[in-house]
Structures are given as structure tokens and as C-alpha cells.
Write a structure and sequence with these properties.
single chain; alpha+beta; Heat Shock Protein 90; five-stranded mixed sheet; 5 strands; about 60% helix
């Protein structure tokens, strides 16, 4: 089957590159068959006789008409059928060789047009030639002649239709393969883009958090060196710890890009709520006291959701450190069925420029919202009426969890 497909494709490729040469060879072969058919005596096994002049002329005209089949397949079929009809009306007993131009045109008609047109052409040619041939007494039994005439006239159309269907099937298969390859390339590009966005968010959160803490600790250390020099070394040690932690997280995040077999690959698990005490400790060393409360039975989260919860808490508390004029904040975790609700709030006051406390700057809030949406959660953030800022995050325990009822995720 595969070899036949290759042969058909190679033949069509050669025909497409040299159309005139192909048509000339086809016409010459068809003319030769017509001349040979006119030299065969009907109904006997005698030796070949001299070809009939009329048969030679009609074979030549029919073969010449085949040059029109690429642009005018219907006209070609009509002209070659007329040539065969002239022979039948003149009393020449038709045979497949004498009808060669007509049969070849019926094959090409089925190959280059639709199935309905091919059937109409084959039916019209069969009916016309059969009726004209029966006007004269056939040289061999009538029944055999009728069956033979119908068979060899309808056969080329059936073969042409089969070849055309096979060609269309191959073209459709190639198109599907190309589409599948294109779809795989698009999917690969989409996954690469999503991974880049995810890595960019990770780097933003890590860098923003630790730089904010380091800046706060550096300012505090400067203040202590001026007014309480005995406490400055402790703050400088905290600053060193913060920068070391930043470097460790950066190595762990960028290390995800390493290839198999690379050395020094990160072995630490991705951050999650299990590392929340360490995160809060880093904020406490920067001067922000965080009170954590839990409601409901704590349940494990899927890795992606766990990392999202950790990063959003980290970003929200970093914003408190950077923008809110307060030394305290609250983190509340509420577990309800398949969802967990996380609330980060503070009682900060407006800064020197009159901005609302805790308000995320730049793309911080957008990044948190995108993180929440990427795992099927939702996030709300805004100032509180009594002062301060609140970030409320609702996350599924797993990415496949259904969206909660309104009562499961508290609204502000």
C-alpha cells in the first residue's frame, strides 16, 4: 500500500513537471492502440489485416483531443466519444483498442472532476456508443457484445475515481500531518512562553521580597549606628542573613533551568506554607511583627497551589514593609472543605505622599492576581474602611477543585 502511494505521488510529480511531454506520450500510445484495434478482425482469430482508414483518422483525432484534458476534461470526453460514435455509425465493430481515446478521456474525466460528473460522462458515453453499435449486427453474440461494451466503457471511470479518491486521501493525510506538526510547534511555543512568565514571576517575587527587607534592615542599621551603636552589629547580621537567603532562593529558582546531569542542581523543595514560619521570621528581623491565625483543619495543598499561597503572602507582606507605616500585620488561614482562604491585613497609615498604606506598586497586584488565576483561585485587594490594607486570597486545595460557593470564600 505504501509503495503504491509512493508510485502515484512520483507519477503525479513527474507529470506536473513535464505536462506536454506526458500528454504527448499519452496521445501517441492511445493512437497506436487505436491503429492496432482497427487491424484486429472482429469475431475471429485470423491474422491482422490492413487498418481501416476511417479508424486511423478517428484514432488520430481522438488522440490529439487528449491534449485538452488538463483545462477542458469535459470537452475532451465529448470529442473522443464523438470519434468513437462516428466509427460505430459507419458500421465499424468497436472494441477497447478502437475506443482507446474515449476510454482514456473517461479515466481523465474521473481523475480531474467530481464523481457525479464522471458518472454522467461514463453513462452518456456507454449509452450512446451501445445504441449506435446495436444499429448493426455484431460479428459475435449480441449478449457478450453488450456486456463487454458496458464493462470496458464504465471501467475507466471507476478506476479514475479510485485514483482520485486515493490522491485526495493522501493529500488530506499530509495536510493533517502538517497541521498536527504545526499544532505541536504552537503548543511547544505556548508552553515555553508560560514557563518564561512563571519564571519571571518567581524571580520578581524573590528579588522584590529580599531587596525590600535588605533595604529596610540597612536603613535600620544606619539609624542604630548613629543612636544605638551597640545594637547595630545584630542588625547587620540580620542583613547578611537576608542577602544569603536571597542568593539561596535565586540559585534554587534559576537552577530549575539546568539540564539533566548538571552539577549543583537545587535539592531544596519549592517554597510552600510549610516554610511560612521562616518567611515570617525574615520579616520580624526587618522590624515587622506578623500574627498568624488558623481556622479549620489544615490540609495539604498541591505543589502549585502551595507555592502560589507562599508567594502571594510573601508579596503582600513585602508591600506592607515597603508602603505601610506600621510594624505589625496579620495573616489568617481558613480551611473550608476543598478551599483555603488567606487574608493578609495591616493597620498602616498613609505615607508621606498621602498614598493608601499597603497599596501594591507597579505590577505587584497584577502579578498576584495572575498567580491566583493560574491555579483556579481568585484574589481581592483594597484599603480597609477603618484604615490599612487587606489582601484576600481564595485557593483550591488542588487545581482540579471546583469553584467554591460564595460562603466558602469570604468577601470584604
Amino acid at each position: 500500500m505504501a509503495e503504491r502511494h509512493i508510485m502515484i505521488r512520483d507519477w503525479r510529480s513527474t507529470s506536473g513537471r513535464h505536462p506536454r511531454a506526458t500528454d504527448g506520450a499519452l496521445a501517441l500510445a492511445t493512437f497506436a492502440m487505436g491503429v492496432l484495434g482497427s487491424a484486429v478482425p472482429p469475431g475471429s482469430h485470423a491474422h491482422l489485416h490492413v487498418p481501416d482508414t476511417l479508424a486511423v483518422v478517428t484514432s488520430a483525432v481522438g488522440a490529439a483531443c487528449l491534449f485538452l484534458h488538463r483545462d477542458h476534461p469535459r470537452l475532451t470526453t465529448g470529442l473522443t466519444t464523438v470519434c468513437a460514435l462516428v466509427l460505430a455509425l459507419a458500421g465499424v465493430q468497436l472494441n477497447p483498442l478502437l475506443q482507446a481515446p474515449c476510454l482514456v478521456s473517461l479515466f481523465l474525466l474521473a481523475l480531474r472532476t467530481d464523481r457525479r460528473t464522471a458518472r454522467i460522462g461514463a453513462g452518456a458515453a456507454t449509452t450512446t456508443l451501445l445504441a449506435a453499435s446495436l444499429a448493426h449486427e455484431p460479428a459475435f453474440p449480441w449478449g457478450a457484445f453488450v456486456i463487454g461494451m458496458i464493462s470496458w466503457t464504465l471501467l475507466p471511470g471507476a478506476v479514475g475515481d479510485a485514483v482520485r479518491s486515493n490522491t485526495e486521501y493522501l493529500a488530506a493525510a499530509e495536510a493533517r500531518a502538517e497541521l498536527a506538526e504545526h499544532t505541536r510547534e504552537e503548543e511547544a511555543l505556548r508552553r515555553v512562553s508560560e514557563e518564561r512568565i512563571r519564571m519571571a514571576r518567581e524571580l520578581h517575587d524573590v528579588v522584590a521580597h529580599h531587596i525590600a527587607l535588605a533595604a529596610t534592615q540597612a536603613r535600620t542599621a544606619t539609624y542604630l549606628m548613629r543612636h544605638h551603636p551597640e545594637r547595630a552589629p545584630e542588625m547587620m547580621e540580620n542583613l547578611c542573613d537576608s542577602t544569603d537567603e536571597a542568593l539561596r532562593e535565586l540559585r534554587a529558582t534559576v537552577g530549575l533551568l539546568r539540564q539533566r546531569g548538571d552539577t549543583d542542581s537545587p535539592r531544596d523543595p519549592a517554597p510552600g506554607l510549610a516554610q511560612l514560619p521562616d518567611l515570617l521570621g525574615s520579616f520580624e528581623r526587618a522590624g515587622l511583627s506578623v500574627d498568624v491565625t488558623t481556622e479549620g483543619h489544615a490540609q495539604p495543598l498541591s505543589p502549585g497551589v502551595d507555592l502560589t499561597a507562599y508567594r502571594i503572602i510573601q508579596e503582600a507582606l513585602t508591600n506592607v514593609t515597603k508602603h505601610a507605616r506600621t510594624a505589625s500585620a496579620r495573616v489568617h488561614l481558613e480551611y473550608a472543605r476543598s478551599w483555603v482562604t488567606i487574608t493578609v491585613a495591616d493597620d498602616g497609615r498613609p505615607d508621606a505622599h498621602g498614598a493608601r498604606p499597603g497599596r501594591p506598586s507597579g505590577y505587584g497586584l497584577i502579578g498576584m492576581q495572575e498567580r491566583a488565576q493560574s491555579v483556579g483561585g481568585r484574589l481581592q485587594a483594597g484599603p480597609r474602611a477603618e484604615g490599612g490594607f487587606t489582601v484576600t486570597l481564595g485557593l483550591p486545595m488542588h487545581k482540579t477543585a471546583q469553584h467554591p460557593n460564595p460562603q466558602e470564600v469570604p468577601h470584604q
